[in-house]
């Protein structure tokens, strides 16, 4: 219990202290993006990780919540309604909930492929409609508002990004806490049961459909909260935020981070936001790398980064984690060199200038020498990685086996 | 009015048959492996791009033959080295993997060919009007597209139902273990079917590229519609996929060609709304406007009221 409270307190502390250490404009804007992504990815994990419902249209709830939130900002500006903008994420959440209550009433009959297909159909339907109903969705240009109107919140008018960050941090903490508490409720527990074996859940008297419906509505609500945060942060929203690309991105985040672990989507949201905002400064090809990273994750780390960390639990408990350090280095260093060499070749083939710096090396995309060097480096490191795998496997088995097992 | 109808029918037929080429491979793969291949339309796009690159050097006809083979080979490799590995982790992992693959292929296409539209030309040999009706020309290339698609359908149907290979495939779908016990290499059959399915998608890309333009978003445009077809037709049913393809193709084509809309309905009912009404967008909606969303509307309705699709089997 104390351990758990300590984790939550350190999470809160991290949220509060981050802008003190990284206070540049770029850093704050990245933190804001992260905050939005964390809530969105966590809400997606409620569906797929905890409820076993693969959705290809989760952006619908994010987008609808965001659109209504921007419209609420406009209403505040024109004094149609009178409340503080700090409540905007709640507006988004309620709209997301409303949409989920309606759509979930017919889409949660079945999990699996049928659910996935309905979510895809609804997603495409709403995304296409958003271009038709220009009055509400603003067409390609989207709609925009202004968060600085309305009654000030204890003197804060949200003119600066930092103020928005703290508001977002407050909502993120609250949303994370409630989503965690949801997993501890009977409804959350039953969602896991229905995910693993709907038939058994029905036999002990639960309606699988009802359980799915509850998770679905909760996920819609929190996606709407994320949409409201988006509206508050950017002050505008376009149809891009509810189309298939956004739905795909949240799937990527949750999957790369690790489904089924509560912390997984948070890790995924942080990694993807960092890639999105930092990597895109260095290369145009970051989406390609993201695609490769995603496919590799699905192939080799089916439980994501969080799953990878949790794999070491046994070794940690037995105090053998240190025996893995050297084998990891022996495999990791050549693997890293291989990745770097491949990336260098990819960048060289795409570069139009004569020379560019890559990790301190000056490479010439036109020259045969650079290519030869990278080819040799790549094949040598690939060979080294492959030949180091048996020792890694042996070390892994050694760290995870009981002392008595070795006689086998 | 008649000429609009005839041309809408012909165009719908071209689109519908093209969609069927994609849907046939997808539904075949689904009935074998039980996984919907999200990347199917990406192989279609690869077909168009590979054929474009070949056609620049060796002409259209070489591309028509080589590109589907290359794409099919790539598909078989994907099945052998990736999909089979993910298969152990369950259906969701497979679906997510093919989704990631679709994402990756789109990025890879942009990497190799660039983000701009390619000037992929139909062959000069077919650059003449097949016939002229009411002063409108119907190009020979579209006729060629229809011919190829029909030939594929007939060929596929014949192979699957009449030939020995087809019988083994059909048996492997329903009773993989029995077929394996009889001495057939079931994983190899799976790989072959996946390869042929992706090759068909590639072929569709080769012949659609010149008409529907070859650009990195072409997989996205068709991808979800093909999904819709396979689901509406009934997962795993080739006949259902055929009917649904034609249905969607004709539906969209008629919707685009017609000029009817809500205003006509309102005037027929004798109602009128002011232009500044908040729901003005709804009152001025026309059929061509909603043509792109019709397939998805149909999909949602079918899934709600008949989740097995038109010709699907009852769920286990």
Question: How would you characterize the overall build of this protein?
Answer:
The complex is a heterodimer of chains A (about 400) and B (about 325). Chain A has about 400 residues and is an all-alpha fold. Chain A has helices at about 1-20, 25-50, 60-75, 90-105, 110-130, 135, 160-185, 185-195, 200-205, 210-235, 245-255, 265-280, 285-300, 305-310, 315, 325-350, 370-400; strands spanning about 145, 235, 355-360, 360-365. Chain A folds into two domains: about 20-285, ABC transporter involved in vitamin B12 uptake, BtuC (Orthogonal Bundle); about 315-405. Chain A is about 75% helix and about 0% strand. A two-stranded antiparallel sheet of chain A has the order 1-2. A two-stranded antiparallel ribbon of chain A has the order 3-4. Chain B has one domain. In chain B, β1 (about 130-135) and β2 form a beta hairpin. The longest helix of chain B is centred in the first third of the chain and has 32 residues, at about 1-35. By secondary structure, chain B is mostly helical. Chain B is about 75% helix and about 5% strand.
Q: Identify the strand order in the major beta sheet of chain B.
A: 1-2
Largest sheet of chain A: 2 strands, antiparallel
The count of β-strands of chain B is: 2
Identify the overall geometry of chain A. Answer: globular
What name does CATH use for the topology of the largest domain in chain A?
ABC transporter involved in vitamin B12 uptake, BtuC
Q: Give the count of helical stretches of chain B.
A: 14
How many DSSP-defined strands of chain A? 4
The overall pLDDT average of chain B reads: 82
Helical proportion of chain A, percent range: over 70%
> What Rg of chain B do the Cα atoms give?
21 Å
């Amino acid at each position: 219990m104390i351990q758990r409270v300590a984790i939550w307190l350190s999470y809160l502390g991290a949220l509060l202290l981050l802008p003190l250490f990284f206070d540049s404009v770029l850093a704050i804007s990245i933190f804001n993006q992260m905050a939005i992504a964390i809530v969105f990815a966590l809400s997606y994990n409620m569906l797929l990780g905890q409820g076993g419902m693969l959705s290809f249209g989760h952006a619908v709830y994010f987008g609808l919540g965001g659109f209504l939130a921007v419209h609420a900002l406009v209403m505040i500006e024109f004094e149609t309604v009178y409340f503080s903008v700090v409540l905007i994420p709640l507006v988004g959440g309620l709209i997301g909930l409303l949409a989920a209550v309606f759509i979930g009433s017919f889409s949660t009959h079945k999990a699996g492929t049928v659910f996935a297909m309905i979510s895809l159909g609804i997603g495409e339907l709403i995304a296409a409609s958003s271009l038709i109903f220009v009055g509400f969705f603003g067409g390609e240009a989207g709609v925009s508002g202004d968060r600085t109107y309305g009654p000030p919140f204890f003197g804060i008018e949200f003119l600066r990004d930092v103020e928005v960050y703290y508001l977002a941090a407050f909502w993120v903490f609250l949303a994370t806490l409630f989503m965690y508490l949801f997993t501890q409720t009977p409804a959350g527990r039953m969602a896991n049961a229905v995910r693993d074996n709907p038939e058994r859940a029905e036999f002990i008297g639960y309606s699988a459909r009802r359980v799915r419906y509850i998770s679905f509505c909760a996920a819609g609500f929190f996606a709407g909260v994320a949409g409201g945060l988006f509206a508050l942060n950017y002050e505008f929203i376009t149809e891009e935020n509810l189309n298939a690309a956004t739905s795909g991105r949240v799937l990527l985040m949750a999957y790369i981070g690790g489904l089924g672990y509560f912390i997984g989507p948070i890790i995924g949201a942080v990694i993807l936001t960092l890639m999105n905002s930092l990597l895109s400064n260095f290369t145009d090809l970051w989406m390609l790398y993201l695609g490769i990273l995603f496919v590799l994750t699905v192939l080799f780390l089916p439980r994501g980064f969080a799953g990878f960390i949790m794999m070491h639990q046994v070794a940690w408990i037995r105090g053998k984690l240190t025996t893995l350090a050297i084998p990891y280095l022996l495999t990791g260093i050549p693997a890293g060199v291989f990745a770097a060499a491949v990336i260098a070749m990819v960048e060289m083939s795409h570069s139009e200038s004569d020379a560019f710096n890559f990790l301190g090396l000056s490479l010439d995309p036109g020259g045969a020498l650079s290519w030869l060097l990278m080819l040799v480096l790549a094949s040598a490191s690939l060979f080294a990685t492959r030949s180091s795998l048996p020792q890694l496997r042996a070390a892994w088995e050694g760290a995870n086996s009981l002392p008595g097992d070795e006689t086998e | 009015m008649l000429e609009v109808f005839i041309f809408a029918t012909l165009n719908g037929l071209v689109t519908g048959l093209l969609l069927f080429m994609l849907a046939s491979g997808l539904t075949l793969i689904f009935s074998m492996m039980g996984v919907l291949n999200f990347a199917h339309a990406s192989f279609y796009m690869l077909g168009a791009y590979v054929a474009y690159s070949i056609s620049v050097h060796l002409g259209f006809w070489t591309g028509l033959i080589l590109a589907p083979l290359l794409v099919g080979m790539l598909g078989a490799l994907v099945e052998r080295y990736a999909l089979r590995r993910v298969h152990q982790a369950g259906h969701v992992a497979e679906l997510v993997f093919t989704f990631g693959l679709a994402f990756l292929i789109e990025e890879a296409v942009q990497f190799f060919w660039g983000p701009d539209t390619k000037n992929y030309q139909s062959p000069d040999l077919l650059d003449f009007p097949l016939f002229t009706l009411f002063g409108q020309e119907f190009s020979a290339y579209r006729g060629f597209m229809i011919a190829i698609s029909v030939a594929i359908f007939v060929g596929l149907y014949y192979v699957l139902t009449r030939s020995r290979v087809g019988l083994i495939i059909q048996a492997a779908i329903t009773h993989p273990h029995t077929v394996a016990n009889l001495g057939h290499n079931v994983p190899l059959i799976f790989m072959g079917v996946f390869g042929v399915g992706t090759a068909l998608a590639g072929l569709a890309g080769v012949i659609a590229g010149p008409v529907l333009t070859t650009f990195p978003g072409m997989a996205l445009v068709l991808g979800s519609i093909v999904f819709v077809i396979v689901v509406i037709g009934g997962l795993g049913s080739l006949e259902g996929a055929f009917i649904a393809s034609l249905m969607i193709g004709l539906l969209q084509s008629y919707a685009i060609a017609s000029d009817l809309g809500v205003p006509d309905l309102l005037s027929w009912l004798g109602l009128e709304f002011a232009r500044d009404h908040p729901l003005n967008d709804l009152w001025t909606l026309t059929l061509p406007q909603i043509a792109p969303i019709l397939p998805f509307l149909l999909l949602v309705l079918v899934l709600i009221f008949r989740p097995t699709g038109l010709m699907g089997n009852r769920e286990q």
